[in-house]
Protein backbone atom coordinates (compact mmCIF):
# COMPACT_ATOMS: atom_id res chain seq x y z
CA UNK A 1 0.00 0.00 0.00
CA UNK A 2 1.31 3.47 -0.91
CA UNK A 3 0.44 4.94 2.49
CA UNK A 4 2.68 2.40 4.25
CA UNK A 5 5.62 3.41 2.04
CA UNK A 6 5.01 7.06 2.93
CA UNK A 7 4.92 6.39 6.67
CA UNK A 8 7.91 4.02 6.75
CA UNK A 9 10.16 5.73 4.22
CA UNK A 10 9.25 9.37 4.74
CA UNK A 11 12.05 11.87 5.15
CA UNK A 12 12.13 14.92 7.40
CA UNK A 13 11.41 17.36 4.57
CA UNK A 14 8.20 15.54 3.61
CA UNK A 15 6.97 15.67 7.21
CA UNK A 16 7.92 19.36 7.42
CA UNK A 17 5.82 19.97 4.30
CA UNK A 18 2.89 18.10 5.87
CA UNK A 19 3.21 20.23 9.01
CA UNK A 20 3.08 23.40 6.89
CA UNK A 21 -0.12 22.11 5.32
CA UNK A 22 -1.60 21.64 8.80
CA UNK A 23 -0.84 25.23 9.69
CA UNK A 24 -2.28 26.46 6.38
CA UNK A 25 -5.36 24.27 6.85
CA UNK A 26 -5.94 25.62 10.36
CA UNK A 27 -5.65 29.18 9.09
CA UNK A 28 -8.25 28.48 6.39
CA UNK A 29 -10.54 26.83 8.96
CA UNK A 30 -10.14 29.72 11.42
CA UNK A 31 -10.72 32.34 8.70
CA UNK A 32 -14.09 30.71 7.90
CA UNK A 33 -15.25 30.89 11.53
CA UNK A 34 -16.85 33.73 13.41
CA UNK A 35 -14.08 35.97 14.75
CA UNK A 36 -14.41 35.00 18.43
CA UNK A 37 -14.67 31.27 17.68
CA UNK A 38 -11.67 31.52 15.37
CA UNK A 39 -9.59 33.30 18.02
CA UNK A 40 -10.58 30.67 20.56
CA UNK A 41 -9.60 27.80 18.25
CA UNK A 42 -6.29 29.49 17.42
CA UNK A 43 -5.50 29.89 21.14
CA UNK A 44 -6.55 26.33 21.97
CA UNK A 45 -4.61 24.88 19.04
CA UNK A 46 -1.46 26.74 20.07
CA UNK A 47 -1.90 25.41 23.62
CA UNK A 48 -2.38 21.84 22.36
CA UNK A 49 0.58 21.99 19.97
CA UNK A 50 3.05 23.84 22.20
CA UNK A 51 2.16 24.01 25.89
CA UNK A 52 0.40 20.73 26.70
CA UNK A 53 3.22 18.50 25.38
CA UNK A 54 5.77 20.38 27.48
CA UNK A 55 3.60 20.14 30.60
CA UNK A 56 3.19 16.37 30.18
CA UNK A 57 6.90 15.83 29.46
CA UNK A 58 8.00 17.81 32.52
CA UNK A 59 6.12 15.56 34.94
CA UNK A 60 7.98 12.81 36.76
CA UNK A 61 5.28 10.38 35.61
CA UNK A 62 3.61 11.41 32.37
CA UNK A 63 -0.08 12.20 32.84
CA UNK A 64 -2.78 14.71 32.05
CA UNK A 65 -4.80 16.63 34.63
CA UNK A 66 -8.56 17.08 34.66
CA UNK A 67 -8.34 20.78 33.66
CA UNK A 68 -6.05 19.80 30.78
CA UNK A 69 -8.40 17.03 29.66
CA UNK A 70 -11.33 19.47 29.74
CA UNK A 71 -9.35 22.02 27.73
CA UNK A 72 -8.26 19.31 25.29
CA UNK A 73 -11.92 18.35 24.77
CA UNK A 74 -12.79 22.00 24.16
CA UNK A 75 -9.97 22.14 21.57
CA UNK A 76 -11.14 18.93 19.90
CA UNK A 77 -14.77 20.03 19.73
CA UNK A 78 -13.88 23.49 18.45
CA UNK A 79 -12.04 21.83 15.52
CA UNK A 80 -14.99 19.76 14.37
CA UNK A 81 -18.53 18.81 15.21
CA UNK A 82 -19.68 20.52 18.40
CA UNK A 83 -21.23 18.15 20.91
CA UNK A 84 -21.92 20.09 24.13
CA UNK A 85 -22.84 16.94 26.06
CA UNK A 86 -19.30 15.58 25.61
CA UNK A 87 -17.81 18.64 27.31
CA UNK A 88 -20.19 18.23 30.25
CA UNK A 89 -19.41 14.52 30.50
CA UNK A 90 -15.64 14.97 30.43
CA UNK A 91 -15.93 17.62 33.15
CA UNK A 92 -17.69 15.06 35.38
CA UNK A 93 -14.57 12.86 35.61
CA UNK A 94 -12.87 12.99 39.02
CA UNK A 95 -9.35 14.50 38.98
CA UNK A 96 -7.85 11.39 40.59
CA UNK A 97 -9.31 9.12 37.90
CA UNK A 98 -8.04 11.35 35.08
CA UNK A 99 -4.53 11.34 36.53
CA UNK A 100 -4.43 7.60 37.29
CA UNK A 101 -5.93 6.56 33.94
CA UNK A 102 -3.52 8.78 32.01
CA UNK A 103 -0.51 7.57 34.02
CA UNK A 104 -1.48 3.99 33.21
CA UNK A 105 -1.97 4.88 29.55
CA UNK A 106 1.45 6.52 29.15
CA UNK A 107 3.10 3.53 30.86
CA UNK A 108 1.59 1.28 28.15
CA UNK A 109 3.35 3.11 25.32
CA UNK A 110 4.31 1.84 22.73
CA UNK A 111 1.29 -0.50 23.01
CA UNK A 112 -1.27 1.96 21.59
CA UNK A 113 -4.19 -0.44 21.91
CA UNK A 114 -3.65 -0.85 25.64
CA UNK A 115 -2.89 2.86 26.11
CA UNK A 116 -6.15 3.88 24.40
CA UNK A 117 -8.09 1.32 26.46
CA UNK A 118 -6.67 2.78 29.70
CA UNK A 119 -7.92 6.25 28.75
CA UNK A 120 -11.34 5.20 27.53
CA UNK A 121 -12.38 4.32 31.08
CA UNK A 122 -12.96 8.07 31.42
CA UNK A 123 -16.40 9.50 30.62
CA UNK A 124 -16.60 11.05 27.13
CA UNK A 125 -13.14 9.78 26.20
CA UNK A 126 -13.28 7.55 23.15
CA UNK A 127 -10.43 6.46 20.90
CA UNK A 128 -10.20 9.85 19.14
CA UNK A 129 -9.89 11.84 22.38
CA UNK A 130 -7.54 9.23 23.83
CA UNK A 131 -5.38 9.55 20.72
CA UNK A 132 -5.17 13.32 21.26
CA UNK A 133 -3.96 12.80 24.84
CA UNK A 134 -1.36 10.28 23.69
CA UNK A 135 -0.26 12.43 20.75
CA UNK A 136 0.35 15.35 23.11
CA UNK A 137 2.43 13.28 25.54
CA UNK A 138 4.04 10.73 23.23
CA UNK A 139 4.05 12.18 19.70
CA UNK A 140 6.79 9.79 18.62
CA UNK A 141 4.35 6.88 19.19
CA UNK A 142 0.83 8.24 18.73
CA UNK A 143 -0.97 10.42 16.22
CA UNK A 144 -4.23 12.28 16.80
CA UNK A 145 -7.19 10.53 15.20
CA UNK A 146 -8.46 13.69 13.51
CA UNK A 147 -11.37 13.11 11.14
CA UNK A 148 -9.53 14.89 8.32
CA UNK A 149 -6.38 12.80 8.60
CA UNK A 150 -8.23 9.50 8.92
CA UNK A 151 -10.47 10.30 5.93
CA UNK A 152 -7.40 11.16 3.84
CA UNK A 153 -5.86 7.70 4.25
CA UNK A 154 -6.64 5.34 1.38
CA UNK A 155 -8.79 2.34 2.24
CA UNK A 156 -10.00 3.66 5.60
CA UNK A 157 -13.56 4.63 4.75
CA UNK A 158 -16.05 4.87 6.32
CA UNK A 159 -14.62 6.53 9.42
CA UNK A 160 -15.19 4.54 12.62
CA UNK A 161 -14.44 5.69 16.16
CA UNK A 162 -12.98 2.42 17.42
CA UNK A 163 -9.57 1.35 18.71
CA UNK A 164 -9.21 -1.07 15.81
CA UNK A 165 -9.90 1.64 13.24
CA UNK A 166 -7.42 3.98 14.93
CA UNK A 167 -4.72 1.32 14.86
CA UNK A 168 -5.25 0.82 11.10
CA UNK A 169 -4.36 4.45 10.45
Largest sheet: none
Average of the residue pLDDT scores: 87
Q: What fraction, in percent, of the residue positions are helical?
A: over 70%
Structural class by SSE content: mainly alpha
Coarse morphology: globular
| Number of helical elements | 10
Strand content: under 5%
Overall number of structural domains: 1
Spatial gap, N to C terminus: 12 Å
Order of helices and strands: HHHHHHHHHH
Please tell me how large the radius of gyration is: 16 Å
Enumerate the spans where pLDDT stays under 50 for 5 or more consecutive residues.
1-6
Number of strands: 0
A few lines on this structure:
This protein has 169 residues and is mainly alpha-helical.
Care to describe what's here?
With 169 residues, this protein is an all-alpha fold. It has one domain. Helices cover 70% and strands 0% of the residues. Helix 2 packs antiparallel against helix 3, helix 3 packs antiparallel against helix 4 and helix 7 packs across helix 8.
Write the layout of secondary structure elements.
Layout: H1 2-9, H2 12-31, H3 35-58, H4 66-79, H5 84-91, H6 95-108, H7 112-119, H8 127-137, H9 147-152, H10 163-168
Helix pairs in contact: 2-3, 3-4, 4-5, 6-7, 7-8
What keyword list fits this structure?
single chain; 169 residues; mainly alpha; globular; disordered N terminus
Amino acid sequence: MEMEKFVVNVDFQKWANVLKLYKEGMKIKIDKMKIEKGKELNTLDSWFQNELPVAIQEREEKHITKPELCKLMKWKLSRGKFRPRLQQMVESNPEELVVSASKKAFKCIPNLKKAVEELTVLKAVGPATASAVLAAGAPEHAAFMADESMQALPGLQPLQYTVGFYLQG
